[in-house]
Amino acid sequence: xxxxxxxxxxxxxxxxxxxxxxxxxxxxxxxxxxxxxxxxxxxxxxxxxxxxxxxxxxxxxxxxxxxxxxxxxxxxxxxxxxxxxxxxxxxxxxxxxxxxxxxxxxxxxxxxxxxxxxxxxxxxxxxxxxxxxxxxxxxxxxxxxxxxxxxxxxxxxxxxxxxxxxxxxxxxxxxxxxxxxxxxxxxxxxxxxxxxxxxxxxxxxxxxxxxxxxxxxxxxxxxxxxxxxxxxxxxxxxxxxxxxxxxxxxxxxxxxxxxxxxxxxxxxxxxxxx
Length: 274
Hints:
alpha/beta, 11 helices, globular, NADP, NADP_OxRdtase_dom, Aldo/keto reductase, AKR
């Protein structure tokens, strides 16, 4: 069993640094088995969302793993057309039912929207009532965070954003660090394109690890929680085997220097409804 590492959120809740992402995992047996295998391998952090349409399968996989509910960190998200105070409260309850759980460990606003401040009030209420252990946002740039924080009672605990060697977003990282907002990475392996990055093969040979393991280890050492997605058991296991080696400062810098600001996914400004 590999030794998992944890991030401590600004409310004291501990979040496993490595989790299983489930974006584009279709509802059904494949997702159930992937979640089940990941948990049996040692993962304790599963990330899903209403829009992924696989919450029921994720919940079933958690149940079938026979890992205690309190030992699994479950994240879901409210989608854009469900935002708003009342509709968010309803969306949250629907996610709970699909996941077959009485509470969530983390609930996020999936993308910044015009009414995100109203949505955030609903998340604050859910948190204060103990229905969710931590609340946060996803895909928020600095300007979106500033707008939210102005009217918030609670500062977000997480900002889940696209993060990989070509998109480091240093200014956003610094802002989140200043406000004690933990950064979490989606698309940490650039949809598999990390194998095309220069120097990756050299580092793979140096550390006797796969390119994916090198990049995931870089992200963990950057202090970024990361959630690689895979339904392949060998790859799920491989992605988890990153806690028994460490990249040198020089090699960390080599990977960080690959930053070009190029996105794999949508720019949050494109998703913002003015």
